[in-house]
């Protein structure tokens, strides 16, 4: 059970998911890359998801679903290939969360 992320969400005024900022999204992307995708290199904001991180389609899905679940947003663009860099992904998550009113 992931109580550390639930505690922060439960204590927010809206009672929903934490409103993500780019720094927090980057931290989550790095965690997913390290723990779930087993990348051994440090993930940087400017890294290209395909060229630099060498993520295949399955890895992109794992990354997108992990970020979607953490921040409660939908990210079909990641799988469709219109997001190129880690920074693009982080900015998209923040934008989606703002659109959803999270």
Q: Can you give a write-up of this model?
A:
- The chain has 102 residues and is an all-alpha fold.
- The protein has helices at residues 3-10, 22-35, 57-71, 76-80, 86-100.
- Helix 2 (22-35) crosses helix 3 (57-71) and helix 2 packs across helix 5 (86-100).
Helix-strand pattern, N to C? HHHHH
Runs with pLDDT <50, length 5+? 1-16
Helix content: 55-70%
What does the overall shape look like? globular
- State which percent range the strand residues make up: under 5%
> Any idea what the radius of gyration is?
13 Å
CATH topology heading:
Non-ribosomal Peptide Synthetase Peptidyl Carrier Protein, Chain A
Sum this structure up briefly:
The protein is mainly α and 102 residues long.
Secondary-structure topology with pairs:
Layout lengths: L2 H8 L11 H14 L21 H15 L4 H5 L5 H15 L2
Task: Name the features.
disordered N terminus, 102 residues, Non-ribosomal Peptide Synthetase Peptidyl Carrier Protein, Chain A, 5 helices, globular, mainly alpha
């Amino acid at each position: 059970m992931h109580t550390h992320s639930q505690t922060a969400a439960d204590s927010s005024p809206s009672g929903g998911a934490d409103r993500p900022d780019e720094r927090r999204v980057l931290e989550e992307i790095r965690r997913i890359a390290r723990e779930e995708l087993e990348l051994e290199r440090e993930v940087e904001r400017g890294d290209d998801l395909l060229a630099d991180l060498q993520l295949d389609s399955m890895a992109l899905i794992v990354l997108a679903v992990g970020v979607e679940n953490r921040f409660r947003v939908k990210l079909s663009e990641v799988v469709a290939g219109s997001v190129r860099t880690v920074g693009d992904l982080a900015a998209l998550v923040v934008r989606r969360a703002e659109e959803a009113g999270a």
